[in-house]
Structure of C17 cyclopropane fatty acid synthase CfaB:
Amino acid sequence: MLAQLPSVLQSLQLPLRLKLWDGHAFDLGPKPQVTILVKDPQLITQLTHPSLDELGAAFVEGKLELEGAIGEVIRVIDELSVALLKDEEDDQPVRSEHDKSTDAEAISYHYDLSNAFYQLWLDSDMAYSCAYFRSATNTLEQAQQNKFEHLCRKLRLREGDYLLDVGCGWGGLARYAAREFGAKVFGITLSKEQLKLGRKRVKEEGLEGQVELQILDYRDLPQDGRFDKVVSVGMFEHVGHANLALYCQRLFGAVRAGGLVMNHGITARHTDGRPVGRGAGSFIGRYVFPHGELPHLSMISAYISEAGLEIVDVESLRLHYARTLEHWSNRLEAQLDKAGKLVPEKALRIWRLYLAGCSYAFAKGWINLHQILAVKPLADGGHELPMTREDLYR
């Protein structure tokens, strides 16, 4: 049976063992750390051209099993793909249609999976976005609180400010801004499950007079400049390239003159926004974030500027997100039995690959995370920001 394996596989030196459906096994190098159990004989020929999306899909669909620590699995599978696909061109950009119905369905697919499932591996505030590690010893809980503070300080949030939180999730940032900075917050989401739990927590903390959470599409935001500050965290990835201009225009119309807008989100490696190569981006689009599209920093910056906002600060948190995702992945892996009772097996397989794979992708520099702070200039061209960043780090 081993003779049926393509000869190219037999020449590799990877810490990988192939186990076949009939019990035969073949080591591709010394001291295997990862095992691929092939359950479908048709997959053998695909292993000569192992794109990351095809291997991921085979695992999700139960056609193969992956054994070993999930982080090591991702690393070895990528090395296998690199060795056999060499320098294949990256995926070409795929542009999706983004209307209100499509976006609502995509958000529901991802975020309405199960609040209890997310609670297994997120922090207690359920911040589902990049944390901020001031120290390598920070716990996930500490790093997410650091992130909330970092955002509020960058926004120079003050007591009584009216803050718009676009894509508020379960309301962790909204509650923090109200509780710690005395802001009044209006948060919007398209996820019914997030809204339900978010409102419950607002009530439990006695913040109903300061925090209001609603189901609302960003396209329907009020355009009367009523908000002093705007924050959007992990949301614009769902907007789509075709709607980025409109998205930025809506943020501009929502904030008052002199007000600040913070956009915190994942950005692409390539300037045209095409996904990373060997199929990793395609897997995310197919199984994790339907219709999601990542713009390059230069692309989103251009749209922010064209909308009339002036960019005053940009910070990359790429390695912070690699560490955040590593925490999430480790927390999920430690509770797979509980997770398997909350979501279907296929969903759990998707999330295991997604969390570990994205941690690897951020660490390798395939994708990035940028916080972009912009101001809506006053009529005379001025603004209310201090002349330096020193106040952020006091």
